[in-house]
Amino acid sequence: MHSPMEQFEIKRLLHFKLGGLDVSFTNSSLWMIIAVILATGVFVVGMRQRALVPGRLQSVAELGYEFIAGMVRENVGNQGKKYFPFILTLFIFILFCNVLGMVPYSFTPTSHIVVTFAMALFVFVGVTLIGLAKHGLHFFSLFVPKGVPWVLLLLLVPIEIISYFIRPFSLSIRLFANMLAGHTMLKVFGGFVVMMGILGGWAPLAFIVVFTGLELLIAFLQAYVFAILTCLYLNDAIHLHH
Amino acid sequence: MRTSGYSALAAGLFGSLLVSRTAFAAGGMPQLDFHSFAPQLVWLAIAFVVLYLVMSRLAVPAISDTLDKRQAKIQGDLDAAEKANEDARALVVAYEKRLADAREESRRLQRTQAEADSALASARFTELGEKLNGRIAEAEKRIAGQRDTVMAGLEQMAGEIAQSAYAKLAGQPADTGALGAKVAAAAKETSR
């Protein structure tokens, strides 16, 4: 019987080396590229006609656009407009990776901590740089809550600093752990179906059916959470209030 | 948001620990294989940059352009509908005004016609009355003329009768002038 971890293995499909760096095309790369192609299909091919009365694919593209546009407008405000394409890309990329991961025999790039951490770190560093560029040293007032006695500040400022620097970890582990746990769970219960055979296997099978629905919801939800937290961090950096 | 972040972090750590224990038992977590990091990161960068370029250069302008156009079209249609509505209202007002004018005009015409009719009728009535009066006066004059003629004949006849009676009584012809005056005076007396 296979280990439930086997599904997360990186398999090199094409071996490449660049300098000393291993840049092999792996199953993870394959599904990232498929996600990019499908997203391009929806957002570019779907919008090709630019119809005033949209068709099905165009409606999907507009829905995704307006969903993220509304999120950025509500959480960041007008100054967030510049970053809207980035947040849309982030959301769509994570969403497509997550959902495509639900296809049997596929691979979920977002189930790897290195991928989610890279994205989270990029967001963290980017947001911090935006804050510093916008406010200079005044940016550090983000760590000092307003209207608090100075004795409490001794306690609160370190907490604020820790909570700030923990952001890339919480952001990346949340997504990675959700993907990991969901897929592992499905695999484990899949194993139960085989183990319990034709007589007892129906119960875990029914669970898998229900859980697959839940996993699809989580696939969307985690992409949403990643995008909205990025918006909130961006808002903190731009407006400096809690 | 922050507390939920921590709980998610705790859950994530707990979950990954739990899973990693079973995974290590089965030969290790693929997520912790450092040799796979470089190819994943390189292809993540490639895929993400490509998708970002596709989104920012193609998709976002296309969608925002379409949404703007749709908004403009809807606004234009709404404005046109508003204008048509106002035009219709103006038409109704103009129609009602014309209707009221026409009613007023017809009433006025009716009134003037009635006045003209009654004036004509009274004019004809007076004309007819005058004509009748004229004819009555003419008839009276004719009657008076005829009566004068008759009376003159009577006078002459009475004179002749008185003459012949005087001649028979007196045996001599009467004095025509004196007798005539007496007869005329008597006739005047009786006709009175």
Which key terms come to mind for this protein?
heterodimer, A: 242 residues, mainly alpha, two-stranded antiparallel ribbon, two-stranded antiparallel sheet, 7 helices, 69% helix, B: 192 residues, 3 helices, 91% helix, 0% strand
Briefly summarize what is shown.
The complex is a heterodimer of chains A (242) and B (192). Helix content of chain A is 69%, strand content 4%.
Write the layout of secondary structure elements.
The complex is a heterodimer of chains A (242) and B (192).
Chain A: E1 12-14, E2 17-18, E3 21-22, E4 25-26, H1 27-45, H2 56-75, H3 84-100, H4 113-135, H5 150-165, H6 167-200, H7 202-239
Antiparallel strand pairs in A: 1-4, 2-3
Chain B: H1 2-25, H2 37-170, H3 176-191
Helix pairs in contact in B: 2-3
How would you describe the overall organization of this protein?
The complex is a heterodimer of chains A (242) and B (192). Chain A has 7 helices and 4 strands. In chain A, 69% of the residues lie in helices and 4% in strands. With 242 residues, chain A is mainly alpha-helical. Chain A is globular. In chain A, helix 2 packs across helix 7. The longest helix of chain A is centred in the last third of the chain and has 38 residues. In chain A, a hairpin with a 2-residue loop joins strand 2 and strand 3. Chain A has one domain. Chain B is mainly α. The model of chain B has no long low-confidence stretch (mean pLDDT 85). Chain B is 91% helix and 0% strand. Chain B has 3 helices and no strands. In chain B, helix 2 crosses helix 3. The longest helix of chain B is centred in the middle third of the chain and has 134 residues. Chain B has a domain of 44 residues.
